[in-house]
Amino acid sequence: MTRLKLFVTRQLPRDVCDAVPADVSLAMYEHEKQAIPREELLARVAGARGIVTMLTERIDEEVMNAAGPQLAVISTMSVGFEHIDRGAAAQRGIVVCHTPDVLTETTADLVFALLLATARQLPQAERALREGQWGTWQPFQFLGTDVHGKTIGLLGMGGIAQAVARRARGFGMRILYWSRSRKSDVEETLGVTYSDLTTLLQASDFVVPLLPGGDATRHLIDQHALSRMKRNAMLINASRGSVVDEDALLQALQTRAIAGAGLDVFAREPIALTHPLLREERVVLLPHIGSATLETRTSMARRALENALLVMRGEAPFDRV
């Protein structure tokens, strides 16, 4: 019996891979710390019935053609799927899957941690301590801003936004949200208030986009949006880098149109060491670690594999896009 080929574009934990059944031939790029080179990707997907991929790989028509007509599923170990050409996949009858639910609470933890770190200047204070700049206690050194009792504005009200709202309630925050559709049940359950975008930007102390990438949200936070924010407000983005116009954000920070920003995602990743945002003292920058816990990343890998295997067997996956 011919074994079905499943190709994985990055090394996954052994215990996750051990769950692959004997009738499936597992091929994998055996590196965890680097993305597969494009030429090797095109060569190694040949004959694959399923592909498990990451945000770092662009799975387009060229890759699908290289795999061949038997390719049935592309499963990404991420919530986002803009790196996959869904139009080309649909034309070929290829199912696209992602892992939206397993990382919700973990990502919400990171969003709130990033908000707190930005508000209280935690990285700046820690750097100063390590560099020997902490002398005597000073009453007005490393002054941040309170989080409790402030207003948080959430752009979007999906699962992660709802999880962030639950955390904000614990800090006694007023919670505004904007989305393309109101969610009355969520408003009642979580005590959040629907707002138009302009009002949210004007009223919020912390503006937090929690939106998917794509043309509909590209540069939603632009110069116009940033000019609507309060001068003492902060932008926290752990959703998609494309949502924020980084040039406009840099200008807003340099002119002190807003007080600060915390970013876990960027327009291009990894962010270049020459990027001017790295020189801004009032910005907290993280290397896209929203879901980076051992438990969650393992669950994501397992779910991505499960989705692919289900489709390869002719069954419905858990998480079809």
Automatic annotation (TrEMBL):
Domain D-isomer specific 2-hydroxyacid dehydrogenase NAD-binding, first and last residues per copy: 112-290
Keyword hit for Oxidoreductase: yes
Gene3D superfamilies with a match to the protein in the record: NAD(P)-binding Rossmann-like Domain (3.40.50.720)
InterPro entries: D-isomer_2-hydroxyacid_DH, D-isomer_2_OHA_DH_cat_dom, D-isomer_DH_CS, D-isomer_DH_NAD-bd, NAD(P)-bd_dom_sf
Source superkingdom: Bacteria
All residue ranges annotated as the D-isomer specific 2-hydroxyacid dehydrogenase catalytic domain in the record: 31-318
UniProt cross-references to Pfam families, sorted A to Z: 2-Hacid_dh, 2-Hacid_dh_C
One annotated Gene Ontology cellular component of this protein: cytosol
Residue spans crossing the bilayer: none
UniProt GO MF annotations: glyoxylate reductase (NADPH) activity; hydroxypyruvate reductase [NAD(P)H] activity; NAD binding
Keywords per UniProt: Oxidoreductase
Record PANTHER family: 2-HYDROXYACID DEHYDROGENASE-RELATED, GLYOXYLATE_HYDROXYPYRUVATE REDUCTASE B
Family as reported in the entry's similarity comment: Belongs to the D-isomer specific 2-hydroxyacid dehydrogenase family.
Protein known as: D-glycerate dehydrogenase
Species this protein is from: Ferroacidibacillus organovorans
Lineage, uppermost ranks: Bacteria, Bacillati, Bacillota, Bacilli, Bacillales
